[in-house]
């Protein structure tokens, strides 16, 4: 515990002097999603204005590099390739998925789907993209051929989707507070984890492969051992439903946000509070940056 206490104090002291925030106006309408590239050098934002903005990080300043246009509806969620820092995928209400390449600064693939898309995730091995729509249909796309591999219709409210770090299990959170775990690519049910008494909204895997975290309408964030599927600890500092969570690049810190006007940052191994960052908006999307600014947050 002593080594943890020293590390906790180190992080707390860091945030006392590194807790400034700055707003950047990049869209003409509400921002729905943000995400850092795997090398931490670019930030992408998707908006109701149908565009995707790419920013580069110059020390502590963001500079707009590209504005991608092409979607016919709002860009509801985006995700970067987990090992290729130039590739980005977006899910839109226009019933399509687009893949963008910052090197050529354009869309390199458009995949038409059956419904209005609200969730998207890219497998850690880079081979597959999964997108969920408003009718709880999840479509699996081969990221190399841009062809649809499979579709799976679920008969419950699907909130967020994700692969584990080895890309052989697929996780879905639902409206009954559960996490459904499927084998991949077989899509056979392996387990249903009763994670929360309220709606399970979001899920995130830590980069070390040891834990995953879930956020819920009960205002709780739960940390789970990925092998035992056992809850290790619960973060209880929020008052409103937890909408988004994010691990730091080294897995030591966990950020969570809700309609509370703060982002809570906790120490993963003990649950201790490291810092809270005040924000202006009630609906916040938080993503911890990696490598370049290990404690940088995008709001």
How would you explain this protein's 3D organization?
The protein folds into two domains: 31-153, 7 Propeller (Methylamine Dehydrogenase, Chain H), CATH 2.130.10; 156-291, Methylamine Dehydrogenase, Chain H, CATH 2.130.10. It is 5% helix and 51% strand. The protein has one helix and 26 strands. The chain has one helix at 2-17; strands at 31-36, 42-47, 52-58, 61-68, 75-80, 87-92, 96-101, 106-112, 117-122, 128-133, 137-142, 148-153, 158-163, 169-174, 178-183, 189-194, 200-205, 211-216, 221-225, 230-235, 242-247, 253-258, 262-267, 273-278, 287-288, 297-298. A hairpin with a 5-residue loop joins strand 11 (137-142) and strand 12. It is globular. Keywords: Repeat, WD repeat. InterPro entries: Tex1/THOC3, WD40/YVTN_repeat-like_dom_sf, WD40_PAC1, WD40_repeat_CS, WD40_repeat_dom_sf, WD40_rpt.
Total helix count?
1
How are the strands of the biggest sheet laid out side by side?
1-2-3-4
CATH topology of the largest domain: Methylamine Dehydrogenase, Chain H
Low-confidence runs (pLDDT<50, min 5 residues)?
289-299
Look at the structure and give the CATH class of the largest domain: Mainly Beta
Q: Cα-atom Rg, whole angstroms?
A: 18 Å
The percentage of residues in β strands lies in: over 45%
Number of strands: 26
| Order of helical and strand elements | HEEEEEEEEEEEEEEEEEEEEEEEEEE
Structural class: mainly beta
Distance between the termini: 32 Å
Q: Estimate the mean pLDDT confidence.
A: 92
Sheet having the most strands? 4 strands, antiparallel
Q: How many separate structural domains?
A: 2
Estimate percent helicity: under 10%
Give me the CATH superfamily of the largest domain: YVTN repeat-like/Quinoprotein amine dehydrogenase
The CATH architecture assignment of the largest domain turns out to be: 7 Propeller
WD repeats: 24-65, 68-110, 193-234
Keywords: Repeat, WD repeat
Protein name: THO complex subunit 3
GO cellular component, one term: THO complex part of transcription export complex
């Amino acid at each position: 515990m002593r080594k943890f206490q020293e590390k906790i104090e180190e992080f707390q002291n860091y945030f006392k002097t590194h807790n400034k925030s700055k707003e950047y106006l990049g869209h003409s309408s509400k921002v729905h999603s943000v995400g850092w590239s795997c090398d931490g050098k670019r930030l992408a934002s998707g908006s109701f204005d149908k565009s995707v903005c790419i920013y580069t990080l110059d020390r502590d300043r963001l500079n707009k590099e590209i504005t991608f246009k092409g979607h016919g509806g709002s860009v509801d969620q985006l995700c970067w390739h987990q090992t290729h820092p130039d590739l980005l995928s977006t899910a839109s209400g226009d019933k399509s998925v687009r893949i963008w390449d910052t090197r050529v600064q354009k869309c390199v693939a458009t995949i038409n789907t059956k419904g209005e898309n609200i969730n998207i995730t890219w497998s850690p091995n880079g081979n597959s993209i999964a997108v969920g729509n408003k009718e709880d249909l999840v479509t699996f796309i081969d990221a190399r051929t841009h062809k649809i591999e499979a579709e799976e219709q679920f008969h419950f409210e699907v909130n967020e989707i994700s692969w584990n770090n080895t890309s052989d299990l697929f996780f879905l959170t639902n409206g009954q507070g559960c996490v459904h775990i499927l084998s991949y690519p077989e899509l056979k049910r392996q387990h249903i984890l009763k994670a929360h008494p309220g709606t399970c909204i979001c899920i995130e895997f830590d980069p070390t492969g040891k834990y995953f975290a879930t956020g819920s309408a009960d205002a709780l964030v739960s940390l789970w051992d990925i092998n035992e599927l056992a809850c290790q600890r619960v973060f209880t500092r929020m008052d409103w439903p937890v909408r988004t969570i994010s691990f730091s690049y080294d897995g030591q810190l966990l950020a969570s946000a809700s309609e509370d006007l703060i982002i809570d940052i906790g120490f993963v191994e003990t649950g201790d509070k490291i810092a809270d960052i005040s924000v202006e908006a009630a609906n916040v999307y938080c993503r911890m940056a990696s490598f370049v600014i290990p404690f940088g947050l995008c709001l």
